[in-house]
Amino acid sequence: MRIVVVGGGMAGTIFANNLARRLSSELKAGKARITMLSASDKHIYQPGWLYVALGRMTPDELEREEASLLEPEIAFFVDPVQSFRLGESHVVTRSGKVHEYDLLVIATGSRPVPEDVPGLKENSVHCYSAEDALKLHDRLQAFTGGRILVTVGLPHKCPMIPLEITFTMHDFIRDRGLIDKTEFYYTYPIGRAHSLENVATWASGEFAKLGVRQETFFNLKEVDGAKGCVRSEEGSEVKYDLLVAVPPHRGEAVIEENKLGPNGWIPTDRYSLHMQGDHGEKVIVLGDTTNLPISKAGSTAHFEAEVAAENAAAMVKTGRAARSYDGKVFCFIEAGKDRATYAMFTYQKPPEPRAPNAAMHAFKMAYNQLYWASVRGLM
User: Cα separations (Å) of 67 from 43, 64, 285?
Assistant: First the structure.
């Protein structure tokens, strides 16, 4: 069986490693082959960008060689796919090489597109890359007072980042002695502070304690940098001195270019994780690339990859899938520089955030280091 994994991020790496261990004997006997095609030779721990923005981590701490994280039986190539020819069961890479498959796994991720909102890219900062996180850190260091506006576009990677960046910036500004000179203002596109109702209720209570103003039903329309204001589709206008954005996201351009799904999101069965439509029986979609109505979080990718790998191995060994994905997600929520809580939920069970505490923050700090074992599928 020929398995081709497109994308070397969290979902693709965990899937490939998990499957390689499950099919160890088949790989050694030549009955199975796993190939990974990536756009980069590096693997980035993306949640760490928040800590870079706060001056608590450096970009080099978030990076490893992708090849060093993979099981030795996996054939790894830095040669991104340019053409998906699903009807012919093969993909074509940038170098022109053709890779045939019996099972294709698409885990290409997502990208921020602040340029989709007029003026947002030019007038805001965010933390969705090392470079942008460092820019945000510089702006926070240079800030001397005024209004910090946190504004959110949908959909976006990491469901908790609007809350986390607000809470952690509040502590950062307080530690600089500027909290009495600063107003925090938070906007969100729907009628509450977060897409998950219980998380929104918890967050609104925490915001009230800190004096964070919030405005809901605020969908980004444009940013007027000359006047220092953000306008919403609903007609509201909010002034800012520092604009921190959670920009809207799209799937990777190659998905749009190959017309696999609107805005780069591939229609995906929520339980089997197979692509919906023609040729979907040979295609699994993981992580941010799906159009599933669940959080685009690292843990989503992790749990999906484990289910998909178990099913792929079962198909090789028994001809049938082993289990379904239940929508499981686990998200840490940093509630300041030294407090955190979490949200755990499935398709059927909503999250129930608890009061933030230091122990959960310590757990998150530990996970930042344990991630490299996690992505290898060892935990």
Answer: 9, 9, 22
Q: Which residues of 218-256 are buried (b: 16+ CB within 10 A; e: fewer)?
A: bbbbebeeeebbbbbeeeeebebebbbbbbbbbbbebbe
- Asked whether residue 122 falls in the same domain as residue 223, the answer is yes
Q: What is the per-residue pLDDT across 184-240, written as a single tens digit (0 to 9) for each? A: 999 999 999 999 999 999 999 999 999 999 999 999 999 999 999 999 999 999 999
Query: Smallest Cα–Cα separation from 254: which of 264, 239, 241?
Result: 264
CATH of the domain at 299: 3.50.50.60
Give the pTM. 0.95
Query: Residue 340 belongs to what H/E stretch?
Result: strand 340-345
**Angle separating helix axes 10-22 and 358-375, nearest 10 degrees:** 60
Q: Tell me the CA distances in angstroms from 124 to 57, 240, 307, 349, 372, one per residue in order.
A: 22, 10, 38, 36, 31
